[in-house]
Amino acid sequence: MDALIIAARKATDPFVRMQLYEAIYKLSNYEVPILWLGQYKLVRTYWDWLHGRYYHPTLAERYDLLWEDPNAPSRPLGIGSYVNDASTYVIVTHGWPDTFDPAADYETFGWEIWHNIGDTLVTYWKEDTEHVQPDLAVAWAHDKEGTTWYFVIRGGVKAYDPWHDKVYNINATDVLFSIWRVAQLGLDPSWMITEFVDVNASSVLSEDELDQLLASGELTAEYAGQVATPKSLSELLQLFGYTGETAGVVKLKLTQPYGAILSILADPFVSVIPMQYVFDYSEGLQGKYQEALKASDYGRNPAAWATYIQPSEQDPSHLLLNQYPVGTGPYYVKEYQEGSYIVLEYNPYYWNKTLWSQQPYGSGGVPSHKTVIYLINDDANARISILTSGDADTGAIPLDRLEDVNGTQYPGTSFKVKVETGELEPTIVFIVLNTMKPPFDNVYVRQALMYAIPFEQIKNDVYNGFIERLYGVIPAGFPGHNDDLVIKYTFDLNKARELIEKSGIDPTQYKFEIWYNSGNTQREKIANYLQTIWSQLGFQVTIKGLEWPTLLDRVEKGDFDVYIIGWAPDYLDPDNYAGPMMYGGTKFSVLDFIKTTNPAEVEALFTEG
Questions:
Q1: Is residue 259 scored above 90 in pLDDT?
Q2: pTM, to two decimals
Q3: What is the domain class of 118-321 according to CATH?
Q4: What residue spans in the chain does CATH classification 3.40.190 cover?
C-alpha cells in the first residue's frame, strides 16, 4: 500500500495515476483497516432571509460574502448585548474546535474559523475549484522541474491582535515562518508540508533577487489558464494584474514535483500569523524577536528558528495561539466561552475591506455581516428550537430531523426555513478500527464486520437517504474510484459468521468500545446499530460519546478500540484520501515504476533483481 501511494505521488501521467489509485482502492477494500460507510450528499438548512450561500468542497464559506434581507428579524441571544439581526450571522452547531492554533488544527470546525480569520498564500474564490487566486501572494512562478516556487507577497497587510489591541505588519518572513512552523511543530496537519516542502531549504528573497531570476527565462508562471515565461518582476505582476506594493518574496523548495501543492497552500492550516506576535507573548520567547530574525538572516536560513520553536504540543507558541489566535482575515476572534459560544467581529484592518464597499457584501468598508456568532449546543432538540425560533440563521440539524424544521415560517412574516439539497460531496464517513490490537489485526475479522453493517438501514433511518455507499478509500468523482474491482459488502450476518470462524478467533473473548463525538446524533445512532448487530456475532460491545477535542486527542495517541468519524478533503486529489488514511509511513531507498503492457519486461526486472 505504501509503495503504491508513494508511486502515485510521483506519477505525472494521468493513466498511470489512474492505475495506481485503482490498485489502492481495491486494496483498501480488501484489507478494510477502515470500515467504509458512505459518501454524503450536500444538505444545508437555513432561513431564507440569508443570501449568497455557496459551496466549495475544501473551503468553508466566507461570512463576509453572505448577506441577509434587511427585514430579517432581530432577536436577543442572551449572550451579553448580542442580537441576531441582519448584520449578525448566527450558526447553531455542536462540538468545539480542536485548537485555535492553525498549525495544529486538522478538523472542519477549526478550519472554518481560520478561513474567516486568516489568510493563506493563495485561495479559491467561492465555488471555483480549478484555479487558485491570489491572497497574500499576489503572483507566483516556478522552475521547469516544478520543485522550486517563488511567491511575491502582498504589501500593506496587517494582522490584528485583539487580545492586546495591537497591529502587526506582515511580510515575507512572516509567511515563511508560518509555513516553517507547521513543519517544525509536527502536529496533525503537518504531513502536508513535511511530505512535499523542504522548509529548511526554503527562504526569503528580495524583489530584486526574483527579478534577476526571472531575467534568466527559466521560470514559468501559470495563472487563470495562462502560461507565460515572464522576464522580469513587472511582467510577472502584470500577468497577475497586480499593481500595488509588495513585501518580499518567499521561495519554497519542494521535495518533489507535486501538482496539488497550490491547493495545499490554500488550506487554512497554513494561515499566516505575525512572527513578532509569537515572540511578544509566548512564554520564554519574549524579547527574542530581533534575535530570532538575525539568527535566521532575516528568513534566509529558517532552520535557525528551531532554537526557539519546539516540535511539541507544549511548545510556547502553540500554547499561546491555542487560546489567543491572531490573523489577517476579514474577521477576528473577539471572545469565546468554551462549549457555549464563539464571537467573531469584522476586522477593521483587513487588507481587502474595499470589497465591503460593494453591494451586497457591504457598505462604506464595513461588511454586511459585522458579527458572526457560533452557538454551541450538543442537544439536537435544542438546536432545532434555536433555529426555528430565529435565534440562529443556520444550523447543524440531523438529517433524520429535517422535516421538523423544513418550511417553518417566522411569525408575522413570509420568511421560512429552507432545506437545500445537492449532489454528492467529496465528504465521507467511516469507522476506524485499532488494527494494532486483536481482534482487529485479523483481516477476516475486519471483513466480517463489513458484512455486519446494515447500510441500507443507516442510509434511510440515520441519513434520510442523503448518503451513498462507499467500498474503499477513494470516493466517487476521483481517479481510482472503480466499484467494478472491489468486494460489494452487503449486510449478511451468515457471511460475517463464516469469516469469524475462518479468522480462528473466539468473539466472546473480546470486549471493545465504539466512540462517537458527543452531539452528533447520526453517529450515535450508527454506534447503537453496530452495538446491537456486532453483539449478535458474540462480541461484547459498548458505546460512548466523547467531546470532539477529547476524541481527537485520544485517537491520535492510539488510545481507542473503534470510533466513527468523517473526512472532508484538504485538497482535491485522490492522494488526500489515500495518503492520510492509508499510508503507514514506510520509507523506501528505491521506489520507481515503469509503464508497460509486456509481461516479459516485468519478468525481466525481477530476474535482474
A1: no
A2: 0.91
A3: alpha beta
A4: 49-96+338-415
